[in-house]
């Protein structure tokens, strides 16, 4: 037979109400009593009834996360961190894919707000007003988007782009082309900001093309336009786009990195497996997912109104797609 809360109360020699408080609001119970209850629950193998606990606490025990594209390994990397941390905190995770559509993203946010205790929204494309409205109906944490008054887990894309430019300049490159990601993407704006500052600082020519879809097809589409500008290096918005660039350059007989260097961004698994291996910037995907859950739980558990926005470091990973430019350049 399943162990009940009454069995735990009997084992710990306390009331059923005390067991309930010790499990749902441990700060309201004396430490010695709480420890006795937790020890009894562990010894008996007691698992609280989530529905019953929800009636007491007013919580569902669920968290939501909205991502733009589940086909993009960037977001599956984030999800690993989210799910691992949520599981440690005894929360389930509902996942929704907006398919890079802003209207769908807003609809999913509103729908999830009714079913979960809080929502993490990854790289949101909707505008500030819509995000503030969502934050008004549920606990909200953003990943890779900065908005005053809303907690956020941020990956320092501007710093990553600065590292790419410094690496290319050190190799002797003086003419770079950047393939933009989505127009409304906060991450793309941050990468452009870091790119522009770094190229201005080093006196390097910068050409910007796009926006392009942040997918393999976007890289294929952008490659011929990039080559027509005669750069010594092509900087793609992300790794998936960079793979499309490498494929198209290979089809045209353009050698990478002998004829032109190529860089990506994100350091997804296949960046190290392609040929040649891709020079890129490592993003702390799982760490960002873990941080986003921590920020969400902090707000839920403490009711704190301060909106922490935490920046995580990024790191250049040098591989085989960058080298000194051709002598004629």
From TrEMBL:
Quote the SUPFAM superfamilies the UniProt record gives. Answer: lambda repressor-like DNA-binding domains (SSF47413), Periplasmic binding protein-like I (SSF53822)
Alphabetically sorted, this entry's keywords are: DNA-binding, Transcription, Transcription regulation
Q: Which SMART domains does the entry mention?
A: HTH_LACI
Residue span, HTH lacI-type domain: 3-57
Instruction: Return the InterPro entries for the record.
Output: HTH_LacI, LacI/GalR-like_sensor, Lambda_DNA-bd_dom_sf, Peripla_BP_I
The record's CDD domains line, in alphabetical order, gives: HTH_LacI, PBP1_LacI_sugar_binding-like
Q: What is the recorded name of this protein?
A: LacI family transcriptional regulator
């Amino acid at each position: 037979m399943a162990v009940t809360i009454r069995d735990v109360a009997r084992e710990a020699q306390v009331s059923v109400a005390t067991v309930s408080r010790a499990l749902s609001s441990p700060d309201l119970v004396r430490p010695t009593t709480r420890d006795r209850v937790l020890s009894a629950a562990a010894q008996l193998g007691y698992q609280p009834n989530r529905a019953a606990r929800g009636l007491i606490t007013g919580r569902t025990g669920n968290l939501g996360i909205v991502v733009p594209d589940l086909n993009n390994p960037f977001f599956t990397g984030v999800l690993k961190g989210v799910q691992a941390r949520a599981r440690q905190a005894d929360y389930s995770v509902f996942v929704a894919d907006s398919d890079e559509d802003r209207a769908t993203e807003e609809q999913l946010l509103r729908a999830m707000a009714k079913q979960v205790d809080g929502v993490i929204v990854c790289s949101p494309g909707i505008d500030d007003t819509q995000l503030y409205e969502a934050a008004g109906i549920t606990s909200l944490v953003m990943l890779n988007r900065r908005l005053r008054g809303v907690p956020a887990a941020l990956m320092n894309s501007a710093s990553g782009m600065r590292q790419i430019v410094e690496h290319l300049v050190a190799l002797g490159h003086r003419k770079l082309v950047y393939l933009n990601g989505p127009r409304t993407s906060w991450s793309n704006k941050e990468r452009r900001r870091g790119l522009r500052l770094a190229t201005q600082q080093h006196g390097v020519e910068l050409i910007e093309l796009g926006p392009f879809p942040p997918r393999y097809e976007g890289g294929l589409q952008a490659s011929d336009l990039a080559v027509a500008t005669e750069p010594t290096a092509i900087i793609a918005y992300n790794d998936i786009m960079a793979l499309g660039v490498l494929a198209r350059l290979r089809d045209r007989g353009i050698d990478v990195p002998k004829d032109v260097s190529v860089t990506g961004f994100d350091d997804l698994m296949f960046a190290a497996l392609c040929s040649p291996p891709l020079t890129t910037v490592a993003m702390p995907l799982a760490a960002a997912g873990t941080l986003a859950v921590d920020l969400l739980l902090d707000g839920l558990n403490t009711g704190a109104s301060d909106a922490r926005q935490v920046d995580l470091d990024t790191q250049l990973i040098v591989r085989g797609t960058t080298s000194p430019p051709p002598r004629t350049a």
